[in-house]
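User: structure tokens for this one?
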Amino acid sequence: MRAWGRLSPGLRAVVVVAATSLLMVLVAWASLIGPDEVFTGPGPTPATLTTPTETCIPLPPTTGPDATTEAPDNPRGLPYCQPPDTSRRDATDMVQRADPPLWLRVVVWTLEAVLLVAVLVLAGLGVRALARAVRRRVGGREERRVADFVELGEPERVAEQMAADAAEQDALLREGEPRNAIVAAWHRFEVQGERAGVGRRPAETTSEYAVRILDLVDADSGAVHRLAVLYREARFSEHQITEDHRATALEALAAIRRGAGMRA
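Assistant:
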């Protein structure tokens, strides 16, 4: 199981498809020869190494009331012997020609059904694994393309929008209830990013988007973390948000601007 977990999705898909193909071959073989031959077939014919030679002439069965036998022609002068016992071979032929019992047929049909279900399940898993591998590869390429594209000129545009919006962001943080003020000030980073032409990615949350905007201008990571913690606390907690929280948010915002090369 550990070795299976270390395999890449593409290699795991190849293994699953190979196993599925093998099972399909087995099911096709069992279906072609029939359930009777799978379990009751005669098996391989033993090879004959030497050509048998006659060592005696079998006498015909005894006939007549006097239990006498008429000797067949013997031009080679071979001794006479009793005819071979063919009762065992006749019984074997009869068993091979007889239909297998109903319970054996049911067992064979059940095994074939289980094999068919296993083939379908493995085929589905293989298709899903291949689809996930393709999506990851295509998604990774698309993300790399987006990342390569958005790097050109974005830090300068973001810094300009942060400087132009500084007064409005300060006003939002200083006015009203501390809880609402901190949430509104944090959301201004999203507005600044949109004005700078930096789009939000489909799989990105609003907080991740704001952090990426601040990373573009090399903002102080400690200050960004403090302000992000205050934002989550103000938005999702139920305890009181005080003026001390507002003051800490103002200090973090000033440090973010200093790290981005703007006057606090």
